[in-house]
């Protein structure tokens, strides 16, 4: 892995920008409370074996508000650790972006709260709401803003505390989700080989009703089972979302590789949204990606939405499996419906 393929050699490489972008550090944070499949099964019609066979999940982490855990605290801890990893002071950041749909408050943004908590001064701060794509959307946005010269040092967070919007009597969602946050620190560099080689960002709002959180009764689609669909709680059509994810996952990887003029063998690591083990396995089989190059941690954490991809990346980086010069592809898909990728030269 890592050696250019014949397709890569023959393809015309993208023009190099004048500004490179480096990922200087990463961090993550998860709640202390571990919730097992057996505990979930006691709340809905399920079992440990049933959940594991269909999702690959054994445990998930759930915030405990009594212990002061929340979306904001996870985001703050993750970015703090990323800054420490990067040896960057909080006041060196000139922008904080947070990908999340589960803010503690609608206003102000979580990014503003985190920037204040960490002492980022007057750094710009905003949230991006793209569900499970929140981190990858944010990563691409931050990268391009740095490459354009608008910002130099950016903290990017992905976090969702889906437990706050989960009805634990609804098996469709109760078995899947956990809470987590991850973050990275990006900085402009003179090394123009570093940064995004190719990226894809897509959405299709026509499929919103397959995965959504109704705020009022008027938002609940016609014909929905009112015993299952509750306002303020996440609702998912599991069968349709699964079909969307399997199809999109494979086409997204191919589209990104085609843009870069590379093949799957050129990529050193795939850092993918942990939605369901069967979806990950489908992509692995389609492209022949072995376990060494497709990271999986869903068994321990469940589907953590926007926290999923940066949590995986931080675990890989801290484990010494992300190295300078490697090609790393970030991939995510989720509510919206949204799907996004980001192929980096580290």
Q: With helices defined by DSSP (H or I, 4 residues minimum), what is the helix count?
A: 11
Which CATH-level-2 architecture?
A: 3-Layer(aba) Sandwich
* Estimated radius of gyration: 19 Å
Helix content: 25-40%
Number of E-state strands: 13
Element pattern in H and E: HEEHHEHEHEHEHEEEEHEHHHEE
Summed over residues and divided by their number, the pLDDT gives a mean of 91
What layout of secondary structure does this protein have?
Elements: H1 6-10, E1 20-29, E2 34-36, H2 37-41, H3 48-55, E3 59-61, H4 71-86, E4 95-99, H5 110-118, E5 124-128, H6 134-147, E6 153-161, H7 171-174, E7 179-189, E8 195-203, E9 211-212, E10 235-236, H8 238-260, E11 269-272, H9 277-287, H10 298-301, H11 308-318, E12 327-334, E13 338-345
Parallel strand pairs: 4-5, 4-6, 11-12
Antiparallel strand pairs: 1-7, 2-3, 6-7, 8-13, 9-10, 12-13
Helix pairs in contact: 4-5, 8-9
Task: Explain the overall architecture.
The chain is an alpha/beta fold. It has one domain (1-346): Peroxisomal Thiolase, Chain A, domain 1 (3-Layer(aba) Sandwich), CATH 3.40.47. 32% of the residues lie in helices and 23% in strands. Strands 1-7-6-4-5 form a five-stranded mixed β-sheet, with helices on both faces. Strand 12 and strand 13 form a beta hairpin. Helix 4 (71-86) packs across helix 5 and helix 8 (238-260) runs parallel beside helix 9. The longest helix has 23 residues, at 238-260. The chain is globular, with a radius of gyration of 19 Å. The mean pLDDT is 91.
């Amino acid at each position: 892995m890592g050696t250019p393929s014949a397709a890569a050699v023959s393809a015309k490489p993208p023009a190099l920008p004048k500004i490179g972008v480096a990922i200087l550090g990463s961090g993550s944070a998860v709640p202390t409370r571990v919730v097992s499949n057996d505990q979930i099964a006691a709340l809905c019609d399920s079992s440990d074996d049933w959940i594991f066979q269909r999702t690959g999940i054994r445990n998930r982490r759930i915030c405990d508000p009594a212990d002061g855990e929340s979306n904001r605290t996870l985001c703050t801890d993750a970015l703090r650790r990323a800054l420490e990893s990067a040896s960057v002071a909080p006041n060196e950041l000139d922008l904080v972006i947070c990908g999340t749909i589960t803010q503690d408050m609608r206003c102000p943004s979580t990014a503003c709260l985190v920037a204040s908590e960490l002492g980022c001064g007057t750094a710009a701060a905003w949230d991006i709401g793209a569900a499970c794509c929140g981190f990858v959307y944010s990563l691409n946005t931050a990268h391009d803003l740095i490459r354009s010269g608008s910002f130099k040092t950016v903290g990017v967070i992905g976090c969702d505390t889906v437990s706050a919007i989960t009805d634990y009597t609804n098996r469709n969602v109760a078995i899947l989700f956990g809470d987590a946050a991850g973050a990275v620190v990006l900085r402009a560099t003179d090394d123009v080989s570093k940064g995004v080689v190719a990226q894809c960002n897509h959405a299709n709002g026509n499929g919103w009703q397959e995965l959504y959180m109704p705020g009022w009764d008027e938002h609940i689609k016609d014909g929905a089972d009112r015993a299952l669909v509750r306002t303020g709680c996440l609702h998912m059509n599991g069968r349709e979302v699964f079909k969307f994810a399997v199809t999109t996952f494979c086409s997204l990887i191919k589209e990104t590789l085609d843009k870069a003029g590379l093949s799957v063998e050129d990529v050193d690591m795939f850092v993918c949204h942990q939605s369901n083990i069967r979806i990950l396995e489908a992509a692995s089989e389609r492209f022949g990606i072995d376990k060494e190059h497709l990271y999986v941690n869903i068994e321990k954490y469940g589907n953590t939405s926007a926290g999923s991809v940066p949590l995986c990346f931080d675990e890989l980086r801290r484990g010494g499996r992300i190295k300078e010069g490697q090609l790393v592809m970030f991939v995510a898909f989720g509510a919206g419906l949204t799907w996004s990728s980001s192929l980096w030269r580290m």
